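hey can u check if this looks right to u? its 245 residues, i copy pasted from the old doc so theres a chance i mangled smth
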Amino acid sequence: MKTGVDGAVPVDATSDDVPLDTDDGDEFELPHSGLAWHRVVILVAAFAFLGGSFGYWLAHDGAPDSGSVDVGFLKDMIHHHEQAVEMAVIEQANGADPVVVGFATEIIRRQSYEIGVMSTRLRDWGYTTAPNDTAMAWMGMPVPLNQMPGLATPDEMQQLRAAKGAEADALFLQLMTNHHRGGVHMATYAYEHADTENVRDLAQLMAYVQATEINEFRDTAQRNHINVTIEPQHVPVPNPSSGSS
């Protein structure tokens, strides 16, 4: 079995003890209240530091070229993650359903950490983390950066900021489902085509977690009578904790 980015075998990605969490599960818990964007920037920076400190110990193998799947995936996924974190912060401030707010908390913690890990890998290879104007060329399907699958439009982001309570919960689940589906698409391709084992492992974990979360969103919406329709999501990669690769 492949190991995770930290060399450890990941545990079930749907539990609270996923290896990307801190030892104290409440250490980075965000309050269910308004949260200024500058505060989440500090939070993301803190996770980037943690990921960067940890990433220092990753193997410094030969750097892929700038047009590789490995480099393209990391650059595009950093940009993709940044919007997911922003949407989750908005749900933290405006949402009402505690389970949905909990999803937002987990997305902030996990994806902020992953941003740190991906940023460190790029720096180790001598690349910046700045996205290219064209995304997904590494997949053979180049699109403008703002048209990556799953990204919310500026209008949709404004609607999410304006929504409150149950309306915010429903819109967050819908937009994050779309966002995750785009992330699963990219991560699955990277898992299948990246040259670097660490990148393949990280992509596998992302694809598995985000696909699984979509199905959890669906179950929660049905159980809690949240006004959103979410279709089931196929999980396209093996569970990283199952021993498959």
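The two ends are 6 Å apart (CA to CA).
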